[in-house]
Amino acid sequence: MLKSELLEIITAIPLFSGCSPDTLEKLRGGRISSYCTGDVIYSPECEQKKLVILLCGRASVFSLDSQKKILLRSFERGGVMGIANLYSDSPFVSNIIAQKECKTLEIPQEQFTQLLESDKRLMQNFLSFLSGKICYLNQKILCLTAGSAERRLALYLDSASVANSFSLPVSLVSLSEMLNLGRASLYRAFDKLEGDGYIKRDGKTVTLINRKQMLEHYTL
User: Fold this and answer.
1) What is the DSSP letter of 16?
2) pLDDT band at residue 11, thresholds of 50, 70 and 90?
């Protein structure tokens, strides 16, 4: 991968926004790895803690439940992975699997720590990133424990994008797994929200016609 393309990907990631040229140059010196479809990118078996940036392809995060592998989220170009246990003594809490051919930039914990200590802006971005992660996990818990299929879907759609019109980042099959719903229940929930006039759906494109009223109707 060309250095200019690598720099373009890195600087587009909020975690590295405004970082010094020296920090960006050191990031570019990380290890670039390639993965085929089905390969494990990160798992509890990985001995080295590292920050992983997805340069191309698509990867998905799955639960470690031996009875039912649940899709937790998916990443595409620019996705940042490995944050969950970067500074934890606990093993990694999920499996990250390549869904198509992927290239990653991998930064060992020790190197990332040095960058945090030398670049105040990166430290601020990192703290903001972690805060966002906490909010995301709280929203995820709320979606999974929200009760009815319509309520889970309404909460997910509200959290999926700031824009009122957006493309679903995952397939409907994957979304049903993320929300712990049967596919038929998810389809009925979409039909219900659309029938009530809160959303409009065209394939994977969803338009929130009235986000506030949808939330009030399904979550209060």
Assistant:
1) G
2) very high
pTM exceeds 0.70 for this model = no
Domain 146-219 has CATH 3.40.1260.10: no
Which string of DSSP letters, residue by residue, matches 159-189?
Answer: HH-SSSEEE-SS-HHHHHHHTT--HHHHHHH
53 CB-contact burial (10 Å; exposed 0-12 / middle 13-18 / buried 19+):
buried
Look-up of token digits 């009030």: 216
Helix (H) or strand (E) holding 74: strand 71-75
Give the distance, in angstroms, between the CA of residue 191 and the centroid of all CA atoms in the same chain: 26
What gap in Å lies between CA 80 and CA 129, rounded to an integer? Answer: 10
Which CATH class for the 3-119 domain?
mainly beta
